[in-house]
Backbone:
């Protein structure tokens, strides 16, 4: 069987096609693994100009031995690393007689100068340049032995390309030692280096000090998002199609590809992607979308579960202190029905092979589900929905206080919230929620932990946990009043 | 439908496929058991399971959110440890490992123990170190090389060294041979994790919503049974438990939705509920009568559940009672400091002057009395020790004359009880962290609230209200 079979045969999956189960499973896993793989070249759409520009900058390095530097600037998910990968590969193919070294450092990890130098030396060591076995610890020694190694590389006419990811974080270092050292190498004729910085801050060059900036060549390549939803659709389609080759599983792959093509012609799907395009153009989010959509179980089980949920919510309204047998019955039915469903899903045959009566090819509903999962709008609402009635009452009391004090100084603390809460309970006439202060304090502390109530103070107080709250601590609310109103309405 | 033909084709395939199928069926069985064990979490379990895989990584880290005791940690742990065939995983609780260095060392420690090897601890001082030590800790023989890292209580990761959280997202990019997948479990929604502008990668979020009342009742009835109190009545107990759960949980539910808390209260209160039935006072068939007898206890429970008071002979007794441990002069000092904190100094003369002033206060003075409204929100203010002592002698009389060592030690003990704090403690309105060594000239503030002071005053007895009456204009 083909290579795909051997690699992913042991993996369990829900999607089974009735005639040839294994290979369709592999189609799905193949697409999912290619989404995030390091070894494949991503297909470039509408990035030709940037690629040409980068190639024109790096080519003189290899062919004419000129040191250069450049900066790739663009927001996250615009294809900077992808273009760099493609360019480097093309350089390798064009100039296969000359070899060049690539050293990568990242601003998140190597932001201290010494760390960055250590990493460079380590990577060059593995590329068999002459470097001492034990890596020195101080910056001076490191720079000295690095210079020696680079001189050797120049003599061999093998240029070294330094790739600095998160370039702006290097600039945050005190006195920018590492950047100064690297950019200084360009000016000197003994070394043959190129420095490619990648950054998502458009003002990355402004962050550089004067002496560093003067050594930088100021050529920036700008990356922008995809212009139209159609381009995005092309990219996504390329990601989901399986390249056809002359293996014996061609009919399954053809079936998959045909299904993908029909899906991309589906109007609802195009509309979904276009509306999502208004929210975000970051390619990584679309990758998440595809991952979740392809991971989803088929749609038929979902409808059944919706009915069960409706029964559950109606029973919730009718529960009272002295319950009757009906609610008990409904409640137990909820549990038992989920048990039944999962047994249905995993009915086993005598040979131990499980069949599922669901189609496995990706459908529009899968993508809809994926979009609802990936988009984050629901989380504040979920948060408010999960609060107990007492906690929600405290939130509403705080909101009322803040609305009333709009003209005066907005000073709210637990004591005031508690009094307001008790007052409103008195007015509403509900006695069973008139609880002790300690119980309300516990609910209040939970709300502070969830960062719905924020103590007014220094910025450091955000996220610092383990501080006991006092009653008199001034509190600010972090939610919008509209959110609270909507949540309360949906509760009742 | 296609089973007979596929089974026939199956028997003719190699042994490899058979063992694969056995693995698949075993996995399926385990997954099925997991879904039964967590009844309402089917969607989340399916989604998580399909994202976790030994061979490939999802493009972004996964974040699991939801309130306390909604089953997040349990589901993720069971999936990673038992069900998905993941060889390399590490579970980090960010409360136990609170610094970056601890976390990295613990990850390496746990990963070195995979595949049945002996765990070894290595030093790891920074992320750079970690990146270099990671590939050697995890040896690869085949394609299954994805490392899954679970970070529980992930909101604490934000407070550690800067750039730790974003660098966790990018770990997979920086490492050449290793694929790393991070799963963050937290109560806070993912919006709270953005401090540096947009994160390097977007998260895939899986939300665990809180249980509704019928779901909670059904789960408790199915999975939690109380320990039987007496052998003779097990049958009756089994009959009464479901109804008890339903009735009591519905009362507790508006105040507290945490499953663990509700179970704890139910288990505490269950003997109290059973007691009339066992002793024969109330016939167990009459459930409404049983519940009526139980009702006053239930009210007490509701008001006290946050303090976890223990049940002593059917009634609730508080664990510690500072009222009984304070001596009389200590109580007076506490009351005096409360008055000093809450009553503004301008009223001192009218309230505390020992000589009775024969002058009638003019109308102007009377109006100035009430113009000092109570401070907004009843926030206490700082007072100096001399002022507090003056108030003390005026309210306590000559009996309370004490020398400085006595009242120094009393004030110190009140500070250690957190009823008074000094101005040198950090964030006085928040933390009560008394520093060792307060001086004569430092300012103090009283942190006790009105309810407690009232109790203390009543125990003396002392009427505090006439001093506080001026704060509330008529």
Residues:
């Amino acid at each position: 069987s083909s290579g795909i079979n051997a690699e992913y045969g042991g993996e369990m999956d829900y999607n089974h096609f009735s005639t040839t189960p294994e290979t369709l499973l592999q189609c799905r896993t193949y697409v999912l693994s290619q989404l995030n793989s390091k070894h494949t070249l991503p297909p470039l759409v509408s990035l030709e100009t940037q690629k040409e520009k980068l190639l024109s900058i790096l080519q003189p390095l290899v062919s004419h031995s000129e040191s250069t530097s450049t900066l790739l600037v663009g927001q996250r998910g615009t294809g900077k690393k992808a273009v760099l990968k493609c360019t480097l590969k093309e350089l390798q193919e064009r100039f296969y007689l000359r070899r060049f070294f690539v050293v990568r450092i990242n601003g998140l990890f190597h932001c201290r100068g010494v760390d960055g130098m250590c990493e460079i030396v380590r990577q060059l060591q593995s590329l068999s340049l002459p470097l001492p076995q034990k890596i020195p610890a101080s910056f001076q020694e490191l720079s000295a032995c690095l210079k020696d190694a680079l001189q050797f590389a120049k003599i061999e006419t093998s240029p070294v390309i330094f790739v600095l990811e998160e370039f702006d974080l290097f600039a945050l270092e005190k006195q920018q030692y590492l950047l100064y050292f690297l950019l200084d190498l360009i000016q000197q004729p003994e070394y043959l280096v190129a420095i490619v910085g990648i950054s998502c801050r458009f003002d990355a060059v402004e962050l550089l000090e004067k002496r560093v900036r003067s050594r930088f060549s100021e050529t920036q390549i700008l990356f922008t998002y995809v212009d139209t939803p159609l381009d995005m659709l092309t990219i996504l389609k390329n990601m989901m199609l399986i390249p056809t080759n002359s293996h014996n599983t061609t009919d399954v792959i053809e079936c998959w590809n045909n299904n993908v093509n029909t899906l991309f012609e589906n109007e609802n799907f195009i509309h979904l992607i276009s509306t999502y395009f208004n929210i975000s153009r970051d390619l990584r989010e679309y990758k998440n979308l595809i991952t979740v959509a392809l991971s989803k179980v088929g749609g038929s089980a979902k409808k059944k579960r919706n009915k069960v949920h409706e029964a559950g919510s109606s029973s919730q309204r009718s529960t009272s202190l002295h319950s009757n047998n009906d609610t008990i019955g409904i409640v137990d039915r909820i549990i038992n029905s989920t048990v039944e469903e999962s047994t249905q899903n995993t009915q086993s045959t005598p040979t131990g092979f499980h069949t599922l009566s669901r189609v496995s090819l990706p459908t529009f509903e899968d993508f809809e589900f994926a979009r609802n999962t990936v988009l984050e709008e629901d989380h504040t609402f979920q948060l408010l929905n999960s609060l107990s009635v007492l906690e929600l009452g405290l939130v509403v009391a705080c909101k009322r206080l803040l609305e009333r004090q709009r003209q005066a100084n907005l000073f709210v603390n637990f004591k005031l919230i508690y009094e307001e809460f008790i007052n409103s309970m008195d007015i509403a006439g509900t006695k069973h929620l008139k609880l002790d202060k300690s119980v309300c304090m516990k609910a209040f502390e939970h709300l502070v932990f969830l960062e719905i109530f924020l103590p007014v103070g220094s910025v450091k107080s955000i996220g610092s946990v383990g501080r006991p709250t006092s009653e008199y601590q001034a509190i600010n609310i972090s939610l919008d009043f509209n959110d609270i109103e909507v949540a309360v309405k949906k509760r009742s | 439908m296609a089973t007979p033909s596929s089974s026939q084709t199956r028997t003719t395939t190699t042994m490899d496929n058979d063992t694969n199928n056995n693995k698949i069926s075993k996995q399926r069985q385990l997954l099925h058991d997991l879904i039964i064990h967590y009844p309402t979490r089917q969607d989340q379990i399916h989604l998580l399971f399909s994202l976790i895989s030994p061979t490939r990584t999802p493009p972004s880290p996964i974040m699991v959110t939801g309130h306390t005791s909604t089953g997040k940690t349990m589901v993720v742990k069971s999936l990673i440890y038992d069900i998905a065939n993941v060889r390399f995983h590490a579970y980090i609780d960010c409360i136990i490992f609170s610094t970056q260095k601890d976390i990295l060392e613990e990850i390496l420690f746990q990963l070195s123990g995979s595949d049945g090897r002996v765990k070894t601890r290595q030093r790891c001082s920074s992320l750079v170190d970690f990146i270099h030590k990671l590939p050697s800790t995890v040896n690869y023989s085949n394609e299954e090389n994805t490392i899954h890292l679970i970070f529980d209580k992930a909101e604490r990761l934000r407070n550690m060294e800067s750039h730790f959280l974003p660098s966790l997202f990018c770990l997979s990019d920086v490492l050449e041979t290793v694929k790393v997948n991070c799963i963050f479990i937290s109560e806070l929604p993912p919006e709270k994790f953005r401090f540096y502008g947009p994160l390097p990668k977007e998260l895939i979020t899986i939300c665990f919503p809180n249980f509704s009342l019928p779901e909670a009742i059904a789960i408790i009835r199915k999975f939690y049974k109380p320990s039987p109190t007496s052998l003779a009545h097990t049958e009756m107990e089994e009959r009464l438990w479901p109804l008890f759960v339903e009735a009591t949980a519905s009362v507790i539910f508006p105040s507290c939705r945490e499953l663990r808390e509700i179970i704890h209260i139910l288990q505490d209160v269950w003997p109290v509920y059973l007691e009339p039935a066992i002793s024969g006072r109330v016939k167990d068939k009459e459930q409404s009568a049983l519940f009526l007898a139980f009702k006053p206890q239930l009210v007490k429970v509701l008001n006290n559940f946050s303090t976890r008071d223990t049940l002593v002979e059917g009634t609730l007794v508080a664990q510690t009672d500072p009222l009984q441990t304070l001596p009389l002069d200590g109580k007076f000092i506490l009351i005096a400091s409360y008055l000093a904190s809450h009553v503004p100094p301008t009223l001192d003369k009218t309230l505390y002057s020992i000589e009775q002033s024969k002058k009638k206060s003019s109308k102007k003075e009377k109006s100035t009395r009430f113009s000092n409204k109570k401070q907004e929100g009843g926030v206490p203010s700082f007072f100096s020790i001399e002022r507090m002592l003056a108030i003390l002698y005026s309210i306590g009389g000559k009996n309370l004359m004490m020398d400085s060592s006595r009242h120094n030690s009393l004030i110190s003990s009140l500070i250690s009880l957190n009823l008074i704090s000094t101005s040198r403690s950090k964030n006085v309105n928040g933390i009560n962290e008394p520093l060792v060594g307060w001086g004569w000239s430092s300012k103090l503030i009283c942190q006790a609230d009105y309810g407690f002071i009232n109790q203390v005053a009543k125990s003396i007895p002392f009427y505090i209200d006439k001093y506080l009456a001026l704060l509330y204009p008529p």
Q: What stands out?
A: Residues 104 and 143 of chain A are 17 Å apart (CA to CA).
